[in-house]
Amino acid sequence: MKDFTVEMSIPVSAGKLYNSIHTQNGVRNWWTNFANISDEVGGISEFNFPKAGFYVVTRNLNKTRLLNWM
Questions:
Q1: What residues make up the domain containing 48?
Q2: Residues 6 or more apart from 45 whose CB is under 8 A from it?
Q3: For 12, 13, 44, 61, which has the most beta carbons within 10 A of its beta carbon?
Q4: Does residue 5 fall inside a structural domain?
């Protein structure tokens, strides 16, 4: 798989955005019920769907400013 980058500007607080995209309950509320999220640098987060899934490794993390997955 080739690398890709997604950058978005979303008009909510950094804390609310972080909770939505990088906590297990947050991801399960809007994307997939089959998610296991690691909240530490070097941790592996898994996102699974009925027919496919993928994982990411957290490279950089600052809950109020930055989330960088590999």
A1: 14-69
A2: 22, 35, 36, 37, 38, 55, 56, 57, 58, 69
A3: 61
A4: no
